[in-house]
């Protein structure tokens, strides 16, 4: 191979790649046109091949080091830039995508919420009418503690907050993922989970109300429940979306309906994970803390719920830049 002729023929590509990289390093990816981005990727592959040939032909350490530096810079910009774009997409989703998705799928979230409230209402009604109904839903040890000792059970968390918090997060995530996956049973398991959890909270709420412990109980529930329960309702809505795809695909083929509604369900799952982590942290460290006054816990719960409503109401104006 004629080294000097080869260098003269290839050098124009090396200079062009260096020019594009300088622009990219100074002004960022947005400064390049789409055609220049494609050119950058093509030049990177070409120069990487030139580096391999230069090493094989032993054209000289100076040129090899120059080509190696060029390919390293190109690799860094192409692949780290790709990861940066991925992170930007994640930020964009949580800023605007999730609130828009919640509004778009609100009918399904509302249906899941209604199932939960129906269960709570049924439990409240029957627990007041029939004392034996309570034992069908609530563990006997908990009933005995509230009725006989007139104490709540949340104090057991104090002192083991990190362990309790992680356990709570895992439990809530398993319930939520179960509600989503339940959509594949045509919504039967999702419906069961929503109803059962409603029955449970309704029965427990009646139990503490009958024994004059409702105020401290709801002071415990409000701070984390303001995020935990909506997250579970979102998960229930995701499960019902999958159920719709199976039962009522509409104008889509069932496979295409599963792809479309499944994509929305997965995005809702991405949305509820941070909510459950925050809720688990609050439930482990804040809600059971006896040194925090109950009125402050109520205010914290209402504040969290208010922020969630404001967040889900966010709308991106057409002229707004990301």
Sum up the structure in keywords.
single chain, 0% strand, elongated, mainly alpha, 11 helices
Nutshell version of this structure?
By secondary structure, the chain is mostly helical.
What layout of secondary structure does this protein have?
Layout: H1 3-27, H2 34-57, H3 61-104, H4 106-129, H5 133-137, H6 140-149, H7 161-181, H8 188-210, H9 214-247, H10 254-285, H11 294-312
Helix pairs in contact: 1-2, 1-3, 2-3, 3-10, 4-8, 4-9, 7-8, 7-9, 7-10, 8-9, 9-10, 9-11
Describe the structure.
The protein has 322 residues and is mainly α. It is 81% helix and 0% strand. About 2% of the residues have low confidence. The protein is built from eleven helices and no strands. The two termini are 52 Å apart.
Query: How much helix is in the residues?
Result: over 70%
Judged by helices, strands and strand pairing, the structural class is mainly alpha
Low-confidence stretches are 157-161
| Largest beta-sheet details | none
Radius of gyration: 29 Å
What is the ordering of alpha helices and beta strands? HHHHHHHHHHH
- Average pLDDT works out at 86
Proportion of β residues? under 5%
Number of strands: 0
